[in-house]
Amino acid sequence: MNILKERILQEAVVLGEDVLKVSSFLNHQIDPDFMAELGKEIAQRFEGEKITKILTVEASGIPIALATGMAMHVPVIFAKKHSTSNVSGSAYRTIVYSFTHNTEYTVLVESDYLDAGDRVLIVDDFLANGRSIYGLLELLEEAGAQPVGIAVAIEKGFQSGGRELRAEGYRVESLVIIDRMDEDEIVFRDGNYDEDEDDE
Ligand code: 5GP
After folding, report:
1. 176 domain-assigned
2. Whose CA is nearest to atom 22 of ligand 1?
3. Containing structural domain, residue 36
4. CATH code at 59?
């Protein structure tokens, strides 16, 4: 997706070997009009899939999930990382390893908001090693809901999550895939992102 590639090239900063900082439009300060465009693109890719809900994880998945939900006109659920006093009743829970914080945490969704009949699109800002997405898939499995696909703004193709998820048969739509990056250069993948990388 060209507008996202351009924005990354103009504003993103590569931290260390494998972290892309996009805090000026995606992760800290949010550009709402730009986010709306990303949401529309994801909605278009999953048109006709009869999605009933969008699922993400707090906090940085929420803006893009909300933008997608607005384009699709379906509810957006964000898995919570902390059980607060306003989590009442039963909840689906699982443990996720955080790439950016290098720690494990529990994510939960109250069982009232996910039904066995739901057709769910998982949306997140980044796909790296896939731990967040696998956690959300576990919550869907607990609920008996169907994962229709996974949509992320930025996949880091040099990390294993996208490859593993596709190999397991999940439909993964990434608005851009970064093949490699360092402080001087960010290189995007071209072509059909659903093709097996090994064929390239
Ligand atoms: P994964 O679970 O796929 O290893 O990592 C995905 C999660 O970690 C995303 O939800 C995102 O919040 C965070 N993350 C992973 N890589 C990056 C990155 O390069 N930059 C930023 N800003 N967040 C990242």
Report:
1. yes
2. 21
3. 2-79+89-188
4. 3.40.50.2020
CA distances from 106 to 57, 65, 114, 139, 146 (A): 11, 20, 17, 11, 21
Does residue 178 lie within any of the structural domains? yes
Rounded-to-10 torsion of CA 40, 134, 166, 3: 30
- Where the chain has pLDDT below 50, the residues are 192, 195-200
Indicate the top mutation candidate among 58, 125, 133, 174 to test ligand 1's pocket, ranked by most ligand atoms within 8 A of CB: 125
Buried b (16+ CB within 10 A) or exposed e, 6-44: ebbeeebebeeeeebebeebbbeebeeebbbbbbebbbe
Encode pLDDT of 114-140 as tens digits.
Answer: 999 999 999 999 999 999 999 999 999
Taking the centre of ligand 1 as the mean of its atom positions, its distance from the CA of residue 128, in whole angstroms, is 6
Ligand 1 surroundings by CB, under 6 angstroms: 19-22, 27, 60-61, 99-100, 124-132, 161
Q: pTM above 0.85? A: yes
Closest approach atom of ligand 1 to CA 97: 2
Q: Are 63 and 26 in contact (CB under 8 A)?
A: yes
Examine residue 198 and state whether it is found in any structural domain, yes or no: no
Q: What is the DSSP letter of 80?
A: B
What total of structural domains would you count in the chain? Answer: 1
